[in-house]
Amino acid sequence: MKTKLSLKFKARDAFVIAAALLIAAAVFLLTLPKANDGRLYAEISRNGEVLASLPLDADAEYIVNGDYENVVTIADGSAFFSSATCPNGDCVHAGRLTKAGQLAVCLPNGVTLRIVGAEAGVDAIAG
Amino acid sequence: MKRIFAALTALTLVFALASCAENGGSEAAGRQRTATVFAMDTFVTVTAYCGDETLEKVGRLVTELDGRLSRTKADSDIGRLNASGTDGAAVSGETAALLKEALAYCAESGGVFDITVAPLTDLWDVAGKAAGGSPTLPSSDEIADAMLRVGYEYLTVEGSEARFSCDGMSCDLGGIAKGYAADKAVELLKADGVSSALLQVGSSIYVLGEKPDGSAYTVGVRDPEGAASEYIGTLPLKDKYITSSGDYERYFELDGARYCHIFDAFTGLPVDNDLRSVTVVTDSGARGDYLSTALFCLGLENAVRMCREENISALFITKDRRVYTVGADFEAFTLTSGDYTYEN
Known about the structure:
The structure holds two protein chains of two kinds.
Chain A: H1 11-31, E1 40-46, E2 49-55, E3 60-65, E4 69-75, E5 78-84, H2 90-93, E6 103-106, E7 111-117, E8 124-126
Chain B: H1 2-23, E1 32-39, E2 42-49, H2 52-69, H3 77-82, E3 89-90, H4 93-108, H5 118-124, H6 126-130, H7 140-147, E4 155-158, E5 161-164, H8 174-191, E6 197-201, E7 204-208, E8 217-222, E9 231-237, E10 240-246, E11 251-254, E12 257-260, E13 275-282, H9 285-298, H10 300-310, E14 313-318, E15 322-326, E16 334-335, E17 341-342
Parallel strand pairs in B: 15-17
Antiparallel strand pairs in B: 1-2, 2-6, 3-5, 4-5, 6-7, 7-10, 8-9, 9-16, 10-13, 11-12, 13-14, 14-15
Helix pairs in contact in B: 2-8, 8-9, 9-10
């Protein structure tokens, strides 16, 4: 027995399509790279591997262990190495990073702290 | 049936949109990726639109160059040369070519740039003192003794053999090795079809192409009086290398005087003139490294003259916070810091 296929558009169809569009939009937004959401992020890596990506607008503290220990602090819209057990402390002297493109490095522990995000001031700093 | 059709349509939409998001507006070569390698006493970061394999190749290349050119590795070409006294050492063809290039720079600068100042570097040990060692000054006798072992004219390269003609000499290619590594890495990226990348070797940067959206990469010129994350101005660049030399990176202070890690090969003393930093833009990384060091040693007046005579693009920051630029590559420079005066 054949069922007659009705192509008449009903209110329930609109509901299904609207729900599908909502799910699609949600998936799209959730899978967008963080750097594209207009916020600035502190990306912490060790030996090239990204360990964490923390928004600059939420105060936080992140400890990187390895040959030495670095403490990365996020406070007042900036990210910085607040303390380190490495021999020279260059990372701590790099100061507070607030703009996209800024980078601080701890060579002895292989740690990089980089600001990424849509509001790029510069792509990198020479010197 | 129609509900199944609608659901399938919706699912297709979901995956299509999610797929777009994952690619993040990438070009065909792949997503934007960043990789960092720690070598050559610094870090090398590549940000490029390419596959992981290309980034891994860059990492291997830099590590391999470090293994050949490092002065502190006993089994490197340079380590073996420095241990050979006046017997000479066989080095790889590439190292020999780089040594010849470096010696040509030494001659071009009239000895202002010298790859054999290592005895002075060791004597002063600025890096060690800056890192917390107790600051002391070497005696004039010690400096005079070290100076006897400095002089690029006493290093020769024939074929793939390098040889010192005086005992106790040593060579340090650190002054151009990072730029050379950048040159080689860019060659590799280009060979792999990469047309847009930012290659950072320590504080030096090679800008390859432009951003995928067609805009120029913008590089900040570091504020030598501020933290490493501060810059005095910005410069858009394409297919260029930019590097700086100055007295602000490695130095120690004693009795109010600053002693930096760049040496005057004629006096044996750390360079001390009216300049705080020099930034140059060049096509070649190795040449850029050489020029930034040589220009810093010359002081403002002589350095500006050399730039004008030889068509070099450079930016100078003086100790009294004035900024000068010379050359076409700095025409688009914008001073953004209010702490400096732009004299052009």
